[in-house]
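Notes, Module 5: Reading structure tokens.

Key idea: the token line is not a picture. It is a compressed description, and you learn to read it the same way you learned to read a sequence, by spotting repeated patterns. We will look at two proteins. The first is printed below with its tokens.
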Amino acid sequence: MRKLLEFVEFLLIKLFNRLDKPSIENRILIGKILCQQLKNIEKPSSLSEAEFKIFSQHGEDGIIQYLIQRIPIDRKIFIEFGVGDYRESNTRFLLVNNNWKGLVIDAEEKCIKRLRKYDFYWKYDLTAVHAFITRDNINDLFVSCGFEGDIGLLSIDIDGNDYWIWDAITVVQPRIVICEYNSVFGKDRAVTIPYEPSFNRTKAHYSNLYFGCSLKALCLLANRKGYMFVGAESSGTNAFFVRKDVANGIKPCAFDEGYIESRARESRDEKGNLSFITGAERKKIIAGQKVIDVITGKEILIQEL
């Protein structure tokens, strides 16, 4: 089924690339056709079979559509933070294809100002807020914007305190949660960076590799909050979780089986230039940085992982 989706997507993209000015409308049309193809997936071997990209960074758009076709969602509301100017995001296709209501938050004021100038901002029910998120302000931000209770989806991607922020969220109970994990930390240990309210990925370590948490740490947190891990998208960036009481037949995935190592070569040298380091060499660069083992609560060095 995955090969069929890829073939259909390939043909559609080829078709629209023949146009002089491929438009947002054409991309959305591709997405609508691919959504229909998702209905033919009954028992995927992994979430990657449902992947396609319209506005998401990788294949998240397709996975989200696959999940919302199967999970009962009463309040079609999403929250996403760490969105930049929203040109690339996990929820924009939900907004324009499914007409969901949403809240997006980003720490860069210029990005939020740019977002508010797009025509889709007035065409759809979207609230965009400029704020630097901490575990102390996250719930108040949601409530002040009128977002509480049972919602459809929450997407977390702030390249830093992701674990601590999800842990702190109590005022919304999303049915689907998407959260970025750091595959450089490996699949065996449940670790996260220590909480630092003003954490900045680049300032924390020049390599840009020291951020976030391991997949195992997210899975343990998810289970404690009433969610099950259902898989990761194929780039090894985002993990997907479904609230257990609404799983509706969707099967859980073991974290060690669902772990995917990222192949992205986004490391930087001390001058800020891409260094293209890959594999285990990435962990060596940040070996002296500290992480918290969320099971024991102890602080350890990455070289001990």
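Here is the second protein, with the sequence above and the tokens below, as before.
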Amino acid sequence: MKYKLPTCGFLLLACSVASAQVASHAPTISTMVRPSRPPAGAGKPLVRVNGAVLTDSDLLREEYSIFPYARQHNGAIPKEMEPQIRSGALKMIIFEELIYQEAQRRKMTVPAAQLQRAEVDFRRQFDTPNEYNAVLQNEFHGSRQLLREKIRRSLLIEAFLKAEVQNKSAVSPVEAKAYYDKNPGRFQYSESFAFQTISIMPPANATPDQLKEGRKRADDALHQAKTTKTEEEFGLLAEKISEDDYRVMMGEHKAAPGDELAPPVLKAMLAMKPGEVSDLIEVDHIYTIVRLKEHIPAGKVKFDDVKAQLQKQMQKEKTEQLRAALDKRLRQNAKIEEL
């Protein structure tokens, strides 16, 4: 069963475990109770951080936090991902230990009522008392005091990160607007077209007779397409007779920039109005009929339309920068020894 030491819900945005930064997630300890895995405190010493020993059990839990799908595959992590996940997990457990030590140095505390609520929340994760007691015994040697200390540690780490990263990474609408005004090129978009197609595609290396037969089918398709009055009618016809892959989507293409379209197709659509159906367009012996849905002129996204997304992206970048700086600062005078 997967469980976690409770937190107040503070989640940092994830970043790649393969990066030079530590992996990002809530400071929780998650595990699946497996007899083949060493219980908490009984693992092999792995690294010493200012005298505090972290074990391979700590590393395993962190690997499961980074790659929870391992629990669904008998604890296995894909071999090609294992080095990156292990590296990220090792960085993370060292990072959290350094944060915990710094929180203690600053004499940060967890209110008794918050600790009590967190312990109750932890127990509520289990369906039966037996499940809870099994975890208490296997992971905490039957000691509620040890469990309470692990919860307190998790809450201290969370409180520290909230003060040093989350609260400082907030991006106001004013900051977002300043970035928007300073980087206009990021929010411009090129001329594009949304359309539907019906295509007749003779075989590759077609014989003259096959090309002639293809042209006949294309003329017939054009005649039928010209009789359609709506997007749906054209789409149903595309499903029935078109030979390109878009037939399964009623011939519909997402909006595409003009410079990504074949020149004959672009030329045809520039002369069309929305709802009009083109004549046959031949490109490399493929006959295409286009129905223009929308011609979108080049322009710039309005700030109000991008504000929320921009604030979120800027906050993510700021969070990663603050986190990396914090990790570097805490490591500067730390004594970290791999065992």
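Summary for the second protein:
- The chain has two domains: 2-173+314-338, 191-297.
- The CA atoms of residues 4 and 29 lie 5 Å apart.
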